[in-house]
Write a structure and sequence with these properties.
Number of strands of chain A: 13
Order of helices and strands of chain B: HHHHHHHHHHHHHH
Strand content of chain A: 5-15%
Structural class of chain A: alpha+beta
Helix content of chain A: 40-55%
Largest sheet of chain B: none
Strand content of chain B: under 5%
Order of helices and strands of chain A: HEHEHEHHEEEEHHEHHHEHEEEHHEHHHH
Distance between the termini of chain A: 68 Å
Helix content of chain B: 55-70%
Largest interface: A-B, 40 and 37 residues
Shape of chain A: globular
Oligomer: heterodimer
Structural class of chain B: mainly alpha
Number of helices of chain B: 14
Chain lengths: 441, 323
């Protein structure tokens, strides 16, 4: 806009000021219309499907969508995917803006958050389109809250101990017999491994970072993390005992130091002591076995939790890996239900997804793909069927606010590991913070 | 700013006199033309005005309203009056977040400005390749708030990071600096100090505005370099110091990215890096406690506004404008 040298009369070049007003307003209008939504074309219903995951899951899910669209030309599925951490922020804000995806994957700790606030469709309303009759009874009702089905389980998972036989061999320590081992054995074996390898390997990764392990521990004592009504289902003594095990392992060297643990936990499964070849045992979900085996380049084995046979009852449980849910605000609930039905009950879809969203919840579909699973997934499938008979019951759905408990667990564990809290104080603080987060008393 | 950074002109009393505002040359334009020009200006400002109204002021007022409700992001909300503000009084994590943020602001900003001034003075002595140094030192300021640098920081200060490898060379067994509650905040303070480039460039420009004759006169009178620094450089530079101080204070109070990435979004280990904004984010988007988060945002606004006001008030007593 600088005046050209030699142009003696800049005024002569001045434009009509009204034009600039129009230009300014025009730019706004353009910007505003550019982000308008696309309406569905004639006769074709457009649905948005949101999920979280890594690249691998994104590409297989796209293939599943293409397969579905080929069979259902009247429906178009728009993919909407991100990683785990960004997923919940995005879902929360889009739901707040009345722009929730029509179909979404949900997780146990968030399901109630959305369901109770009326953001999810009761799947009973679309039972004509969505067949739930073949779902494994152990997780069939896991998406039910107060008689309404806010989600249907995608697959089955169990929390277990992953152990690297190579590490045990290196340390000259025998692999434990997981049908009899106790919590004392667990502490002792972990210390032995660290000692035998002069600290080259640690016995086990810290277990206090995930409340899922404590849930098993509490269940072994006839308690649970939460009661049916969402209140705390365990005693302070039980939690104190649980934290004491970690304290003991910190003292005898069976697990990495507090600062090392912070770093290991921040790295996720890829930085676990198994993945980096720095330890013998860690606590994970069964569907994470594949990824960790691959990073560790070792045939990691699955072990039942300690104390399963030496306590009041067994504590391990099946957990719905995730849920498929339909937004209460969708304009096309029937079409959305048809897509969920396809994801859940179609053999072709399962052949693509395999055990990535847990071992398929539909028992017929599970049977169908069992033979074609990769080795590690096949091992976790076998493990799940082995422990199935020992599982007493499922868990009540976690209360509203359970998503926050993830961070409370982490924080309290850290404070205890750094010696700022004793196990008793840690138990007390955990209980009061969880109570506050979940609105219990 | 580039004009300020140009080579210092030859020092003569004439061109070191305080710059006077340029007198308007010629007669003022006719009223009609003036109005048309104003209209044109408003026309071009329309997008900005609309942006201010809908993208800044609208949400600002909405958050003020939400701070008096139990808004949860999803579903309905109810008016709860001052409940959110009352809850703050008993929120221990909020107090901890305030403590962490204050330590960060009051330690890192003075250190950062001191380093910026020191380097500006070295560069001002006429280093060869000044534009290169200036750019190199400025670079961290551009990158400091980025996700990539935060990730890099986590690596450098990790248990097996660069720092510990250097320490190991001298036979020292280092900690996992970002993973230990006693040191994690320190690494973030170092990160902020490291982004001294922006204030440094401004200091450099300020130093070049100080007439050299003052120094020459002082030197003739036998003033030591230290004396010249305290009696000439500092007083002449106070407006610039003040400007940098206000700007960096506000920036530091709002730090989010670094703490979010370095602690993996948790503010850990054991809340030692739980910055105010990070805690606000956790309440709003993690715990669906958007009403409370809105109230927190307004408290932060009041804190920053309060400190800036104190800063401006105090400036009357120490900032020297030379006129």
């Amino acid at each position: 806009m600088r005046a050209h040298p030699g142009n003696g009369h800049p005024q002569a070049r001045r434009r009509n000021p009204l034009l600039s007003v129009a230009a300014g307003v025009g730019a706004i209008v353009m910007a505003a219309t550019a982000c308008g939504g696309s309406e569905s074309e004639d006769g074709v219903v457009e649905l948005r499907f949101a999920w979280w995951g890594a690249d691998d899951r994104h590409s297989t899910t796209q293939e599943v969508i293409e397969l579905f669209e080929a069979e259902n030309p009247d429906i178009k599925i728009v993919p909407d995917y991100t990683d785990w951490a960004g997923y919940w922020d995005r879902l929360a804000t889009s739901t707040a803006a009345n722009d929730a995806p029509d179909i979404m994957t949900q997780e146990e700790r968030y399901l109630r958050e959305y369901g109770d606030r009326g953001a999810l469709l009761d799947l009973h309303e679309v039972s004509d389109q969505l067949d739930l009759s073949k779902i494994d009874p152990l997780v069939a009702e896991s998406g039910e809250l107060d008689g309404q089905a806010f989600g249907v389980a995608t697959g089955v998972n169990a929390y277990a101990i992953l152990a690297d036989p190579q590490a045990f061999e290196e340390a000259g320590v025998e692999m434990p017999d997981d049908s009899t081992w106790t919590w004392d054995d667990y502490v002792e074996i972990s210390a032995q491994i660290t000692e035998a390898t002069d600290g080259e390997l640690v016995g086990t990764q810290s277990m206090s970072y995930n409340e899922s392990g404590f849930q098993i521990f509490a269940r072994q004592r006839g308690e649970n993390l939460y009661n049916e009504d969402g209140s705390l289902g365990f005693s302070k003594e039980t939690l104190e005992e649980w934290f004491s095990i970690t304290e003991e392992l910190l003292e005898n060297g069976g697990q990495p130091s507090a600062a090392e643990s912070v770093e290991i936990e921040a790295g996720g499964p890829d930085q676990s002591v198994l993945s980096t070849g720095q330890g013998a045992m860690a606590h994970f979900w069964t569907n994470q076995l594949g990824g960790i085996s691959e990073s560790a380049d070792s045939d990691i084995e699955l072990l039942r939790y300690p104390g399963e046979t030496s306590n009041e009852r067994t504590g391990m449980y099946f957990k719905p890996a995730m849920f498929y849910s339909i937004s209460a605000g969708t304009e096309h609930p029937e079409e959305a239900a048809r897509f969920v039905d396809f994801l859940l009950n179609s053999n072709e879809a399962a052949e693509l997804v395999l055990a990535d969203r847990g071992l398929p919840a539909n028992v017929d579909v599970r049977e169908h793909i069992l033979g074609s699973l990769p080795e590690a997934d096949a091992r976790s499938a076998e493990f799940l069927s082995e422990i199935e008979d020992t599982i007493v019951d499922g868990n009540p759905p976690p209360p509203i606010g359970a998503g926050e408990v993830v961070n409370i667990t982490k924080r309290v564990s850290e404070e205890m590991a750094f010696g700022e809290l004793t196990p008793a104080e840690a138990a007390e603080q955990f209980m009061s913070e969880v109570n506050e987060a979940t609105g219990g008393s | 700013m580039s004009a300020l950074l140009q080579r210092r002109p030859p020092k003569t009393p004439q061109n070191t006199a305080a710059p006077k505002p340029a007198k308007r040359v010629g007669k003022s334009p006719a009223p009609g033309k003036q109005r048309r020009e104003n209209l044109a200006a408003y026309g071009f400002l329309t997008p900005w005005f609309l942006g201010l109204a809908f993208i800044t002021a609208g949400p600002l007022l909405a958050s003020l309203y939400f701070s008096f409700t139990d808004y949860s992001l999803i579903g309905d909300h109810n008016w709860v009056g001052l409940e959110n503000y009352e809850r703050m009084l008993t929120d221990e994590r909020l107090f901890n977040a305030l403590k962490v943020t204050f330590v960060y602001v009051f330690v890192s900003v003075p250190l950062q400005l001191a380093l910026a001034l020191a380097l500006a003075m070295i560069l001002d002595r006429g280093v060869r390749g000044l534009p290169l140094y200036r750019s190199v030192y400025y670079l961290p300021s551009l990158l400091g708030g980025s996700v990539a640098i935060a990730i890099l920081w986590r690596q450098v200060f990790g248990a097996n990071g660069l720092i510990n490898q250097v320490l190991a060379f001298f036979g020292i067994q280092g900690e996992g600096w970002v993973s230990h509650p006693d040191y994690a905040l320190g690494t973030l303070i170092v990160l902020n100090v490291w982004t001294f480039g922006a204030p440094m460039v401004i200091f450099l420009a300020g130093l070049r505005q100080i007439p050299a004759m003052y120094y020459e006169a002082a030197a003739v009178d036998g003033a030591s370099p230290l004396r010249r620094f305290w009696s000439i450089t500092v007083p002449m530079l106070t407006p610039i110091i003040f400007f940098n101080l206000v700007l960096q204070f506000i920036n530091a109070f709002q730090t989010f990215t670094q703490a979010f990435i370095v602690s993996g979004g948790t503010g850990g280990p054991s809340d030692s890096t739980l910055f105010y904004t990070l805690y606000l984010y956790q309440r709003g988007f993690g715990a669906f406690d958007m009403g409370y988060a809105s109230a927190m945002a307004w408290l932060l606004l009041m804190i920053i506004g309060g400190f800036t006001a104190v800063n401006f008030f105090a400036s009357k007593y120490w900032v020297f404008y030379g006129d």
